[in-house]
Amino acid sequence: MERWILHADMDAFYASVEQRDDPRLRGKPVIVGATSPRGVVSAASYEARRFGVHSAMPGFRARQLCPHGVFLAGDMEKYSRVSRDVHRVFAEFTDVIEPLALDEAFLDISGSVALFGPPLTIGRRIKEEVRARTGLAVSVGIAPNKLVAKIACGLSKPDGLLLVTPEEVEPLLAPLPIRKLWGVGPRTEEALLAAGFHTFGDVAGASLAALHRAVGSRAEELMRRARGVDERPVIGERMPKSIGEEATFETDVVDAERISAALTAHAEAVARRARRAGFVGRTVTLKIKLARARGSHPSRSSGLSEPDYPLLSRNKTLRDVTADGALLREVALELWARAGIREPVRLLGVSLSNLQPAPSDGAGPRAGAPPGAPRSPSGQLELFGGGAPVGAPAPAPSAPGRRSGDALGRALDAIEDKFGRGAVRRAVQAPAKITQTDRRKVGEEPDES
After folding, report:
1. On the chain, which terminus has fewer CB atoms closer than 10 Å, C or N?
2. CA atoms within a 13 Å half-sphere pointing along the CA-CB vector of 109
3. pLDDT exceeds cutoff 90 at 317
4. Assessment of whether the complete model's pTM goes beyond 0.70
5. What are the DSSP calls for 120-156, one per residue?
């Protein structure tokens, strides 16, 4: 059976939803996110992109480039509802769907051709159905593999449809600038350009030795990608690699109380999402972005200089799995103390990885756990650890057979389900306002209402 992978990506998704729902915004440069000085752009309409604004851009840069833009805070619950409508369309054509975000997914349509017609016909029908049900445009790329399908989708935007046959892969890729190659970031791009590799074709036709001198051990991998070789399958039921929360402070933070409050809020949010998704994890990671920039780098889209803020991480692997907010907090505080940071920070994050399905305890189904996933033999760690201050070592967890953290976590979740987000919380909360980047989060889907 011939392999066909479809990549679907909504055009300027968040901004397009806002323009759809408010006719006054149509034709205007709409920027979702970046409503605070340290906010980050979540989405930019095509009118805003003409000024160089793009997603993940710092808010201050977006305002410099497009001072007359319409900046909106956004509504993630609304975007999630629209996303579910879009994914229902995808599911009518194949059950092999790999979501990448609210607005993006891979579909393996290899087995759909016999039912719905040639790949190009399927692409057209998906576009038509998405527009009919949501009023929005989706761009579609179709190719023999994920790498080429994603590139084709990007080249077709906005509101495009591009099919790439196996014979067309090499001619399509060869002239593309090397920055479009998956896995090539700013530093790798700089190394490749310095060595004389400017296009996919340059890398695909290079000697392995010359490429190795430029990028080291990644040479063979990049050469395969530049030739359009990608054997990755579309994975319909994916176990998430990690569940994390991070946020940028409105002003640089150094005092212990605000650090403790922020880590508490993040740890509780991670634990709540893990429980709701039906997972427990073993490794806790602390992410720290320092406030003082060390140099700068040119933006890949605008060419303007952007500051480089050092990013640090510390992690600890526990002896048993957990989805216990208090324990995550204690470990995060221990990692902070161990890092020995003595200068202001602009961002903090906490994540839980080495995930596995939560053990069944008769309390009901585990929402979000993959069908048929193996049961964990491990128990839940103790909830209460004494509330150590910043810098104090985390207390040793109690025996895994004790489940008070599990029971309390479910009780907290039930209260929030009934009375709304934030109805109950631990005594310590972040007194400083923080700005978060909106993104799809495991275990935090809003209700269908």
Report:
1. C
2. 31
3. yes
4. no
5. HHHHHHHHHHHHHHHS--EEEEEESSHHHHHHHHHHH
- As separate numbers, helices (DSSP H) first and strands (DSSP E) second, the chain gives 15, 16
Query: Looking at 18, 47, 104, 330, which residue is catalytic?
Result: 104
List C-alpha distances in Å: 94 to 2, 126, 275, 283, 378.
15, 11, 29, 35, 36
The pLDDT confidence band at residue 278, using thresholds 50, 70 and 90, is confident
Interacting residues of 395 by C-beta distance below 8 A, sequence separation 6+: 330, 385, 386, 388
**Kind of pairing, strands 138-143 and 279-290?**
unpaired
Residue pair 102/440 in contact (Cβ under 8 Å)? The answer is yes
Between CA 159 and CA 125 the distance in angstroms is 13
Q: Tell me the pLDDT of the chain averaged across its residues.
A: 84
Backbone angles phi, psi at 332, to 5 degrees: -60, -40
Phi and psi, residue 131, nearest 5°: -65, -40
Residue 238's pLDDT is what?
66
Provide the pLDDT for residue 371: 38
CATH topology for 1-164 is Alpha-Beta Plaits (3.30.70)
Residue 220 a catalytic site member = no
| Phi, psi of 166, deg, nearest 5 | -55, -35
Task: Using pLDDT thresholds of 50, 70 and 90, give the confidence band for residue 396.
Answer: very low
Domain at 242-435, CATH homologous superfamily: DNA polymerase, Y-family, little finger domain (3.30.1490.100)
